[in-house]
């Protein structure tokens, strides 16, 4: 029997991961994702674990290669959108992306910002990044879009002398600050240990 | 190319991935090799492993093995990678010897 749920998590990646893991613990396995929908089928409780990876900085080719690699590792992988967007022919500029991924359209990486990765539960925590150096690099890819947006609004606020823009900029700096704190913590650990 | 010979230590992850490719292996086999050899002490996340493989391939210390027809991509160490691994082994031997002399407990040698 399948079960359909409607949720929208936006940039709250950890919340989304936790929710999927709770569903798995209750015996529901993800089989399909939509913009705001998740379809589950019944499975043994706790049979699977989930992890979410932010990949919006990747070009279409490298996103596809990475997905393929994860599938070869024996994982099930789903693309997921991070934003809500129903317009057709969307084009977005991503200055923080890698070469080849800076122009995101519906045909390429737009609405494919996340990978939901499913692994058979082996009792160990499911982590895709395990060394400090790699964790730092990954955390930076999550921080950069917020940082660029914050700077953009800050410039707007100053140039146009619009204080609401400034408020938005300050709000956008909150996730930047949180990710930065994480990076600082990891960097401290990386001083003496590799993982 | 010469810069590859200079410089200091390899990271443990890079060295193990390099060693895993002395026999051609694809991603999953590399991960299993490392887990098995270290008795589960070193467990690599798939994302970290992916990054390590790409870095080593870019440096040409490892290269894709066989035809690209197979679905899973396998990698094998190159001559350059082999030399670097041998050099690293020597460095670790020296380090182990010095550490043994200072810390002790190396009498069984």
Helix and strand arrangement:
The complex is a heterodimer of chains A (195) and B (109).
Chain A: E1 2-6, H1 13-25, E2 28-33, E3 37-42, E4 48-54, H2 60-72, E5 76-80, E6 91-93, E7 103-105, E8 114-120, H3 132-160, H4 163-190
Helix pairs in contact in A: 3-4
Chain B: H1 12-20, E1 25-26, H2 27-37, H3 46-58, E2 62-65, E3 74-77, H4 79-103
Antiparallel strand pairs in B: 1-3, 2-3
Helix pairs in contact in B: 1-3
Task: Report the largest inter-chain contact.
Answer: A-B, 21 and 19 residues
Query: How much of the residues of chain B is beta strand, in percent?
Result: 5-15%
- Extended strand count of chain B: 3
Count of DSSP H/I helices of chain A: 4
- The average pLDDT score of chain A comes to 93
**What is the beta-strand fraction of chain A?**
15-25%
Oligomer: heterodimer
Residue windows where pLDDT falls under 50 for at least 5 positions of chain A = none
Unreliable segments of chain B (pLDDT under 50, ≥5 consecutive)? Answer: none
Q: What summary fits the major beta sheet of chain B?
A: 3 strands, antiparallel
Spatial shape of chain A: globular
In short:
The complex is a heterodimer of chains A (195) and B (109). Chain A is of the alpha+beta class and 195 residues long.
Features:
heterodimer, A: 195 residues, alpha+beta, 3-stranded antiparallel β-sheet, 4 helices, 43% helix, 22% strand, globular, B: 109 residues, mainly alpha, 3 strands
Structural write-up:
- The complex is a heterodimer of chains A (195) and B (109).
- Chain A is of the alpha+beta class and 195 residues long.
- Helix content of chain A is 43%, strand content 22%.
- Chain A contains four helices and eight strands, in the order E-H-E-E-E-H-E-E-E-E-H-H.
- Chain A has helices at 13-25, 60-72, 132-160, 163-190; strands spanning 2-6, 28-33, 37-42, 48-54, 76-80, 91-93, 103-105, 114-120.
- In chain A, the strands form three sheets. Chain A has a three-stranded antiparallel beta sheet, with helices on one face. Chain A has a three-stranded antiparallel beta sheet with strand order 4-8-5.
- The longest helix of chain A has 29 residues, at 132-160.
- Chain A is globular, with a radius of gyration of 18 Å.
- Chain A starts with a strand and ends in a 5-residue tail after the last helix.
- Chain B is mostly helical and 109 residues long.
- Chain B is built from four helices and three strands; from the N terminus they run H-E-H-H-E-E-H.
- In chain B, strands 1-3-2 form a three-stranded antiparallel beta sheet.
- In chain B, a hairpin with an 8-residue loop joins strand 2 (62-65) and strand 3.
- The model of chain B has no long low-confidence stretch (mean pLDDT 89).
- The chains are: A alpha+beta (195), B mainly alpha (109).
- Chain A binds chain B through residues 53, 66, 69-70, 72-75, 117, 124, 127-131, 133-134, 137-138, 194-195, and chain B through 11-13, 26-28, 31, 42-48, 50-51, 71-73.
